[in-house]
Amino acid sequence: MEAPSRFLPENFDSTKPVAVIAGRQLYPVLTIRSMQAAGIDVRLIAFEGETRDDLYDSFLEEHKVRIKVGQIGKLLKALKRFGAGHAIMVGQITPGRLFRDLHPDLKAIQLLATIKEKNADTIFGTICREINKVGVEMLDARAFMDHELATEGLMTKGKLKAKTESIEFGIRMAKEVSRLDIGQGVVVRKGTVLSVEAFEGTDEMLSRANKYRTDKLIFVKTPKPGQNWYFDIPVFGMKTLETMHASGVTTACLEVDGAIILEKEKVMEQANEWGIEIYGYPRPQGS
């Protein structure tokens, strides 16, 4: 029998429940839909004020739990109660919650005290290790979303209008920004960096990208060199496309197998209508 995703480990046990640790918006919804279509028994760990209510309401009471951001001890207990063999983190948490409305329990306080530099890699990496310690294996966050990933070449209609050298420049700049753990994206034009994504996120970065009202803007989104595929996967969806359109950004470049395009078919259809090209570039060697 063919595996439901090429991103699953060889020892994946489909007879045990998979716990989805679900963040905001559509990414968890689409992942769970794909998992259920593959016959996977799903459990839900939702976050107050983050996970969609309609997703939470779709689960049986005994198959779900809602926790506050920061309640790591409660998360670990839920995984054990569910009898989960694997867990998968999908969907972002509102960045500002790391500074306000955070509710760390005793377990979280103990773990945070061991982390010198507190960023997505260190915090979520620590949580993943704690999950593994209770006998639950983390899954690649691309699992079950193979059909929504960026593919090589122009994914929209027509011929690529953006210049190759401009795209290559944008990829180099995005890789360097991500290597420094600043963000995952940049907007460039003819060898000039116009906007860099930082903590505020992609859509805010795109909104200020065209301050000078110029043309031929290229948005590059990239995973980090040495990306931890358990969390913080680059995601592109309708909201980002709408922000590009409003800001006059006409090209999006996404790394092959390194960015998830939510509702990919719908996004491509709308991009074609607006004259926005979406291009998949191969992962650079050595990155």
Keywords:
287 residues, alpha/beta, six-stranded mixed sheet, 9 helices
Question: Topology of this protein?
Answer:
Blueprint: E1 18-22, H1 27-37, E2 42-47, H2 53-57, E3 64-67, H3 72-82, E4 86-90, H4 106-112, H5 120-133, E5 137-138, E6 153-154, H6 164-179, E7 185-189, E8 192-196, H7 202-207, E9 217-221, E10 235-236, H8 238-247, E11 249-255, E12 260-261, H9 264-274, E13 277-281
Parallel strand pairs: 1-2, 1-4, 2-3, 4-5, 9-11, 10-12, 11-13
Antiparallel strand pairs: 6-13, 7-8, 7-9
From N to C, what is the helix and strand string? EHEHEHEHHEEHEEHEEHEEHE
Largest sheet: 6 strands, mixed
Our count of helices gives: 9
Oligomeric assembly: single chain
Structure description:
There is one protein chain. The protein has 287 residues and is an alpha/beta fold. 32% of the residues lie in helices and 19% in strands. The protein is built from 9 helices and 13 strands. The protein has helices at 27-37, 53-57, 72-82, 106-112, 120-133, 164-179, 202-207, 238-247, 264-274; strands at 18-22, 42-47, 64-67, 86-90, 137-138, 153-154, 185-189, 192-196, 217-221, 235-236, 249-255, 260-261, 277-281. It has a 6-stranded mixed β-sheet. It has a 5-stranded parallel β-sheet with strand order 3-2-1-4-5, sandwiched between helices. The protein has a two-stranded parallel ribbon with strand order 10-12. α2 links the parallel β2 (42-47) and β3 (64-67). The longest helix is centred in the middle third of the chain and has 16 residues, at 164-179. The radius of gyration is 19 Å and the shape is globular. The mean pLDDT is 90.
